[in-house]
Structure prediction request, 700 residues.
Amino acid sequence: MAGSTEPGNGAGIRRSTSVKDVAALAGVSLGTVSNVLNRPDRVAAATRGRVEQAMSELGFIRNESARQLRAGGSLTVAYVMLDATNPFFTDVAQGAEEAAEEADLSLFLCNSDNRPERELTYLNRLQEQRVQGVLITPVDPDSPTLDDIVRRGTPVVVVDRTREGDTHCSVAVDDRLGARLAVEHLLENGHDRIAFVGGPDTIGQVRDRRRGAVDAMTAAGRSAADLVRVDTAALTVTEGRAAGERIAGLAAADRPTAAVCANDLLALGLLQQYVTLGRRVPEDLAIVGYDDIVFAAAAAVPLTSVRQPRRELGRTAARLLIDEATNPDHVHEQVLFTPELIPRASTRRR
Amino acid sequence: MAGSTEPGNGAGIRRSTSVKDVAALAGVSLGTVSNVLNRPDRVAAATRGRVEQAMSELGFIRNESARQLRAGGSLTVAYVMLDATNPFFTDVAQGAEEAAEEADLSLFLCNSDNRPERELTYLNRLQEQRVQGVLITPVDPDSPTLDDIVRRGTPVVVVDRTREGDTHCSVAVDDRLGARLAVEHLLENGHDRIAFVGGPDTIGQVRDRRRGAVDAMTAAGRSAADLVRVDTAALTVTEGRAAGERIAGLAAADRPTAAVCANDLLALGLLQQYVTLGRRVPEDLAIVGYDDIVFAAAAAVPLTSVRQPRRELGRTAARLLIDEATNPDHVHEQVLFTPELIPRASTRRR
DNA sequence: CTCCAGTTTTGAAACGTTACAATGATGTGA
DNA sequence: TCACATCATTGTAACGTTTCAAAACTGGAG
Prediction:
């Protein structure tokens, strides 16, 4: 770590130039400068030119706090993400950004990193800043915090989670169906003993997907007990590797022939561990992931996965949020998208 | 897409409660409420209790715009990322967040998505909001915009890019060295014809890494012409696949036996395409990636890659930014980290 | 009972902008 | 030349906080 150094400009001694300075330099009144900023058509071309000249000369930058205080209404929207390092959520964010851009709003991304206290800090800051609204994939969708926020006047749209209440919109994908598709696919391919890999159960997603897996088993006339439960402490690659280790270590009689993972990170970790151990996929273990992130197809063995319309999810959520923030006749909506199974080599028929 | 509906609460009719309302309810003056907020020790325990009670009763949320306008100084810092869907940058962001949290600042993430106009929009909004400072991986590090921002008083730290000027701090990794390590590794493994896959050349990273690759060739007494140039339009998985197609299509005599990619996304795409085409890695083509993202190790063939200290990068950048924003004696620094080659199966000796 | 030092509380000014009513210019038709 | 409409500009009052000097208490010492 080499370093060359330079003298700094120190802390903010410079009071930034205000509309008053601009007015003085351009020889007009405050009001005119404000007009140039907000209703340029109302001011004579010549004056406007002079004001704009003065602005760029002074490097004027409008103080958003003052603007907002007086005029009300911020120009931003935020998405509080559960895990910014999970490609699933960044894709959702990209969709949200598209919709925000359409509406001339800026989207700020906040990463709660699965930590409730950090989520709360962000939510507070965002409310204090009076953002137009908040998109959030909450750590705990059932926490009353969300209702509080709505009650205090900030629109909220819950993304990729659902909840009973009706205080806000939500946009999600049918997790129960997704997992059912996955298990049905495996059953069709002749698998009997199937593992469901995922956890912790505090994550609604995990519960729903497990339930979907059970649905498929019982619908096919199998015992729910044939669904082997492999619990993980988080939905990460590392946890996936650990799960692989454990599954490989089971006695042959207990060992499942296929695994449905609660997400792709887990599936990729599991796959990687299996390959490392010299086992074959799908011969020794068929694997289905969930999310179909871009890396699923590029995996050691291309991964069968349940695809969710990620961008669409984000876009729809942001549109609903913007509608709620701007349309007095807004009606809350619970949108549920349908997932799709993408079969690849990791579940090739044996 | 099913939907159940509920009547909405409409646009913000409710004027949010102000410190004035709180004061009225608690039977104290404005000043006292403000004191409770900012110097709780200065107010008698009994009164403080009454005020706090009133606050929670009314659901009071301090208006940050007003606070900032009067008191100055925001509590946020932002990172304008080049591509939020690239795991490299989200890891950097995570590091930055750690440092921001230490300093009790909130970090907002903005995704420029490689588009200069969007980057500019974000930078403007951030300046208008008077954020404490901006971390940025710029689309074009040589654009004068950055200097303008600094001149106008917002501290800027450039992340993962470098530039001649001395108006701001920067934190980067030695790209030339990283690529040299990659090529040296391939030369040691007996490769003669090596491709450098990357582009466009507008990205400094690509230029530096290519230069490093050339360095290694000439240092080993090879002709720089032995480094086959495979240009891509972006650093994405899709472009990697296209590059794979092209390389595989070359006449055997021209075809390189190894490829160094400008990043892991490219490498993963290339690898995937090769596998799809039925070619073998590393036998037909050895591949080295760059960044060592978490998915590199989980790839079809575990990917040799150049690892960069991503979190460290973000953490250091944020620390420098915070120092610049708060320490009058701040001195600009150009930090350069050292990369490391992580050899895996994709370059196993043949 | 008075005075004083200390502690609490208050009131008004200020932050930089926007909105709006009022004023001033400019031009037009009779 | 005048009345009038139109267009451009101005001045001032907010917006919701914080700050800070000053006022109002308190209780103990003399």
